[in-house]
Structure formats: C-alpha cells, structure tokens
Design goal:
The complex is a heterodimer of chains A (about 375) and B (about 280).
Chain A: H1 5-38, H2 49-74, H3 82-100, H4 113-117, H5 133-157, H6 162-181, E1 193-194, E2 198-199, E3 202-203, H7 207-233, H8 235-252, H9 257-283, E4 285-286, H10 293-306, H11 312-331, H12 336-350, H13 354-366
Antiparallel strand pairs in A: 1-4, 2-3
Helix pairs in contact in A: 1-7, 2-7, 2-9, 2-10, 2-11, 3-5, 3-9, 5-9, 7-9, 8-9, 10-11, 10-13
Chain B: H1 8-18, H2 25-30, E1 38-49, E2 52-63, E3 67-71, H3 78-85, E4 93-98, E5 102-103, H4 109-115, E6 117-120, H5 132-139, H6 146-150, H7 156-168, H8 184-197, E7 202-206, H9 214-227, E8 232-236, H10 240-246, E9 249-254, E10 257-262, H11 264-269, H12 271-278
Parallel strand pairs in B: 3-8, 3-9, 6-7, 7-8
Antiparallel strand pairs in B: 1-2, 1-4, 4-5, 9-10
Classes of the chains: A mainly alpha (about 375), B alpha/beta (about 280).
The complex binds adenosine-5'-triphosphate and magnesium ion.
Adenosine-5'-triphosphate binds near residues 49, 72, 75, 77 and 78 of chain B.
Keywords (chain B): ATP-binding, Nucleotide-binding, Transport
Pfam families (chain B): ABC_tran (PF00005), BCA_ABC_TP_C (PF12399)
InterPro entries (chain B): ABC_AA/LPS_Transport, ABC_transporter-like_ATP-bd, ABC_transptr_urea_ATP-bd_UrtD, BCA_ABC_TP_C, P-loop_NTPase
Amino acid sequence: MHQPLTLRLMAQLGPALTRVMVVLLLMLALALPLSHVYVAPDSAWYVSAYTLTLLGKIVCFAVLALALDLVWGYTGLLSLGHGLFFALGGYAIGMYLMRGIGREGNYQSALPDFMVFLDWHTLPWFWWGSDSLAWVLLLVVAVPGLLALVFGFLAFRSRIKGVYFSIITQALTYAAMLLFFRNETGFGGNNGFTDFKRIAGYAIAAPETRAVLFVLSVLLLAGSLAGSLWLVNSRFGRILTAVRDAENRLMFCGYDPVRFKLAIWVLSAMLAGLAGALYVPQVGIINPGEMSPANSIEVAIWVALGGRGTLLGPILGAFVVNGAKSWFTVAFPEYWLFFLGFLFIAATLLLPRGLMGLVRRGEDKTS
Amino acid sequence: MSIPHLPPEIETLTPSWAGETSGLAHLVSTGLDTSHGQILYLQDVCVSFDGFRALNHLSLEIGVGELRCVIGPNGAGKTTMMDVITGKTRPDSGDVFFGETIDLTRHREAQIARMGIGRKFQKPTVFEAMSVADNLALALSGDKGVWASLRYRLSGVQHDRIDELLQITRLAEFSHRLAGLLSHGQKQWLEIGMLLAQDPKLLLLDEPVAGMTDAETEKTAELLCSLKGRHSLMVVEHDMAFVGSIAERVTVLAEGAVLAEGSLAQVQADERVIEVYLGR
Ligand SMILES: Nc1ncnc2c1ncn2[C@@H]1O[C@H](COP(=O)(O)OP(=O)(O)OP(=O)(O)O)[C@@H](O)[C@H]1O
Ligand SMILES: [Mg+2]
C-alpha cells in the first residue's frame, strides 16, 4: 500500500515503454556485436567498427548520465564536474593500456613514450601495479570514489549547496584539467594516452575485442539501471528525494543528510569512473580535454533533456544528444554548439520534465 | 501479587506517562534524566545576528508533561529560541539543557531529533513529492543510518502505527495523495503527524494553526491537549483564542527575553504585556 512514487510512475509509464527499452538494449547487446564479428563487411547487415564504437561510446555516456541523475535528479546536487570522475576512470585504465604497448612504441622502450620524451628512467610511484588489469580495475572505482569522498565530505559538512556546489565542482574539474595538462604530472600532458595496442592480451582493434567491450558496456548500463531502480525505490532512495525537497525537515526527523549525500555522491563517482574505463579502450584515447568544464556541462544537458529524476530519461537524453551530435558534426560541424545551446534552452522552456515528461503526458492522456 | 512478573520497562515507563517528577526511572529507561521535573532548561541564552540581539539573556524552563504556550510580538525571538533548542543556531552564550545532563549546544540537529525533540516549522515543511503515508513512514522512529535505510522494511507494527497516525491527523483518506497537493491546514497536520511518528519527548510547534480554518484549529487544540502529560510541548502561537483553549501556562517573549509568565489571564492583565502588544 505504501508503494513508492517511482514504481507507480513506472507502472503508469506502462510496461510498454520499459519493455521496448529492454528489448532494444538486448538487441543492441547481442545483434550488433555479433554482426560486427560474423557478418561479411559487404553485407547490408554488417555493423561497421565505426558504428559499433559510436554506439558503445554513447552507452558509456548513458551510464555517466545515469550517475549524474542519481545525484542531481534524485538528490538535488547539480554536479558540473562529473566528467572528472569519468576521465579519472579512463586514465586509470589508460595507464594499463599504455603499459600494454610494451616496446612497440616509437622509442621501443618499456616505458611509455611520453616518459622517454621527458627523459624519465623509471615509472613514477603512482604507476605502480599499472601492468595488472585487476589493480587498475580497482583504481577505476577507488580513485574517483576517494576523491568524491574527500571533496564531498568537506562540501557537505560545510553545507555548501545549490549553485555554490555546482560552481566548485566545475572548479574542481577545471583544476584537474590544468594539472593533467602539465607534462610533469605524469599522465602524458595534453596528448594524454593513445595508440593502445592490446587489452588483456587481445589486440584492441580486433573485431572480437570491440564486440566484447561493447557487450560489457551494455551490461554495465543494464546493471546500473537495475541497481538504480532498486536504489531509488528503497527507503534510501526516498531519503534522497527528501534531501532534495526538504533537507531541514529530514534533519529534524533525525537523519543526517551529510551521510546520505556522501553515500550517493561516492557511488555516483564510482559509476562514472566505470563508464570512463569502458569508454577509453573503445575510443582509443584519453586526454585532459575530457575534464574540460564544457564536457561536464554537456552531461547535465543530456540529463535535463531526457528528464531528470527519472531513470530512463538520462539514458534517452544521452542517446538523443550524442546521436544528433555525431550526425551534426559530420553535416554542419560549425553549428553543433549553437544547436546544443538551442536544445538546452528549448528543453528548459518547453520541456521542464524533459523528454520523459513528454512520454508521460502521452500516457496520461491515454490512461 | 503479580507485579514481579511485569517486564521491567513497564515500571520505568509509568512515571513518564503520568508526568510524575521523581525517581531515577527516566534516566534508566531513556538516557534522559528528568529527575528534577524539568525537561528543558534555557539559561541566560544570548544570540546576535550582525550585532542585533535576537535573544537577550533568555531563561526558561519546561516541565515534564507540560504544555507551554509562548506568545510575543513579531520578531520577539520565538523562532530563534526554537532554532537554539534544536541545534540549528548556536547561542553566543548561555546554557541549553535537555533534562539534567544533555547539553544541547554540543549536538547537531539530527542527533537532537533522535534524542527526542521534534519540531514543526513556522512554514509547514513536508516531503511534497512523496505520498502522505510515505511522509509518515520516513519520520517513524528507528535506525536512521544509511545501511539501515538500504535494508528497510516496514514491520506490521509500523504499518499499524502509520494507520493510527493517519487517523489522528484525519488524513486517512488522503494516504496515497502526494503531500504537495494537500491544503495548507492539512500540511500542518501532516507535519504534526510526522512529529508524533518520531515519538519525541518534547515537541516544539511553531505556529501550528496558522492558515487553518476555525474547525481545523479546534481539532488541533483537542489533539494537543490529548498529548500533554504523555509528551512535553512548547507551542508558539499568535492566535489568542487558540492559546486560551489549550494553555495552562503562558510565557510572553519580547525583544529576546521573557517579559511575563503565568496563566493567560494573568499575562493579559500585565501592564508591560499590554504595552508591548498595544504600545507601538
Ligand atoms: N538568520 C538571521 N539573520 C539575521 N537576523 C535574523 C535571523 N533570524 C532571525 N533574525 C532576526 O531576529 C529577530 C527574531 O526573529 P524570530 O524569527 O525569532 O522572531 P519571531 O518571534 O519568531 O517572530 P514571528 O512572530 O514573526 O515569527 C527578528 O528581528 C529577525 O529579523
Ligand atoms: Mg517565528
């Protein structure tokens, strides 16, 4: 009888849309990579490496959008620095991929090329363990998680809220970008990491490898969607909405909002890190540009356009915007940013609840 | 005699329900020592905002099971006093004690709430995007940690408690409605219900009948009267008819300090009180 709001919304949304999404996801997960590996390149059914990589990349973005929505849509904390956590996950796996190049680099050294260029003779201490996939997978979640923990603890304990919080997250990712631009920081400066050769012993550009990375991305998306669904419908999830809507009331009910904010903030950062870790081997490059403030703002646009505070919304938003972007940047590259700005303004004015609001309105009329 | 067979907590509970004032029983059962009959002490409390004294050497005591009304002109410091008690504002000087031993100035809001002080805000504040029943469920006493919230299931007893609270607050037929869609008066009631769900020892109500119809006000008066004895209450109100219908003792606050204290008739006859209310 005390059915949570989100469940009811899902019920109203009709199993229809959810089912369509699930079927689409499954098809994406199986049909596309299978076709990429087994269908002959001249067949009409062949999925090219370009298409598969593009979709795989968007799937990773969808996970990032979902991670942002958990803190923004559900908890009311607008982070304009989520690209940082994504990039850190990417850099962590990037270290492993750089080590995987071995002596096949330009300088034929065991060290990554940029280190040879800097005249370094040993790996810096923080590259320790970077030849082990298990270790870097740990870093993928631990580094964004720890950074989020420290940053969140300081920010939430000092009761930094609203636009101030957004601004300092933006400053954080900007500061990190400047740090990573420096060659001495030890992450390849403005070139970042690229020219990867292999992952877990497999050639990184092989169709099978691409297919597996794609499937893993879809599984990550499905897993985070299912996990988030469970989370937002738990009492924990309702406390998050309470933080968003009436933090004072929550506090005087005996809950410590700092702990709840910290929990979801760290979880979200780790999820963003995982998304970044699957993104980098697919696109084959990571550089400090991923930490640019504009990138993080774009993530917020995906979420706003799709519909924040819903679970399918941010995923939809990531697909729509990035789909449009990949078409635009080929057709009219110089107008993309104008179009993005227009999209954001239109969404804010006309679709305050995002595309999901549109879907819901349709469903409301039919029910 | 059958008394020895009773579980020990029966014995320790009885005095608090009866509003009795002696014995160490309270200390044992709740960690709150009210052995001197007072549940709240404010002593010489001062609070300034940018040099403006909102509370000026305020001293006040509330007895166990008492229903105290606090009145005073706008800006007298009533809300600020509640902020100090609930940990929202730290006093510049003075003591604030819950029972004999708990120094409230050393605790944060959530801890104070868990210790048993519930507060209703001047502007009704509920979780608008949640149903009425969910609002009450969230307020229920229990473990309020992160882990507990992940594994939380309402027990049968808690469902019954929610139903009971829905009855008390006359919101049973709206239990599935979003709290944001309730009328102003109903939100006030829901917030009072949420306070009761916390099962607090001391309730602080800041203008609980503001925006209520006369009928609703009357019901609220009944409800509050039924709570005294079991809980201690401090009610801030401007509505004198309402104060008259519930008050035993009234404290008049003006310019951050207590101006007068006594029955409503007594304070209304007080020259200084008449002056602050009518003089300006
Ligand atoms: N955070 C604050 N910063 C500055 N001044 C404040 C603050 N909070 C309260 N005040 C001032 O302190 C004084 C006491 O305010 P308070 O809200 O306690 O009065 P009140 O008795 O509750 O009045 P009302 O009956 O209007 O609710 C007022 O003059 C108010 O302007
Ligand atoms: Mg007030």
